[in-house]
Amino acid sequence: MNAxxxxxxxxxxxxxxxxxxxxxxxxxxxxxxxxxxxxxxDFGRVRKDIAxxxxxxxxxxxxxxxxxx
Length: 69
What we know:
Layout: H1 3-7, H2 11-33, H3 40-68
């Protein structure tokens, strides 16, 4: 996932993507807890994607707040 791609999306789409990533993160944790094989780099990838999404959402909120005044 690329930050440029994310900036082109609407807030609603970003929130849906965030929910999807949170579910994936939960699924990875459950797989690890039950002893199923999980690629270790998947945890970091999902965590970083969530951080990117939150950053873009915060940028959009700040921009909307600044233009609304």
